[in-house]
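sorry for the late reply, my laptop died twice this morning and i had to redo everyting from scratch. anyway the thing you sent over, i finally got around to it. pasting the sequence first so we're on the same page, its 195 residues, then the predicted structure underneath. double check i copied it right bc i was rushing
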Amino acid sequence: MKDQDDDGIAASVARLVVDEGMEYAAAKRKVARGLGRRTELPSNEAVEDAAREHIALFLADTQPAELAALRAVALLWMGRLAAWRPHLSGAVWRGTATRLSSVHLDLYCDDPKAAEIALINAGESFDTGALDRPGREPLEVLTLASPCAALGEPVTVHLMLHDLDDQRGALKPDARGRPWRGNLAALQRLMAENP
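ok and here's the structure:
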């Protein structure tokens, strides 16, 4: 593994993302530790390209239906949480998710506690956590399990509670001009285009 080129490193990260449901950053850190040396890690776009290749080779028969099921779960929660301007991000938005992937929803709140209170009032069970952000306060994250009949198992949904002001930078595109996240209308269009 020490002599892998950039494509090999991206492929190693992509395997962790696809086969173990890891997030890009965590998968990159694990591969870097496995290399046992400092190395430049691939961009998220390179990892995504490698993930698409891996899916095409090994999961072409099952991944499209799994992705559709995960997007349906996202759609449900985005509708339920519409007051907090939800945006879908991660592998479910980008199209590389498998049944092991989590749904990531960014909520943009005037008062982040309001979303938490709404879940409590609706009788939803969830865990709270925080995501470290260099140079900024940690981001509060609510995590819940959502039933998914299509997959026959619950799906993990992470709700990232952002300040309303953070929404301005939310739709920055990647290096290829594609958005890293999308709102409810964008997800509905995506699902209509890729049933």
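The chain has two domains: 6-58, 63-193.
thats about all i looked at so far, will dig more tmrw
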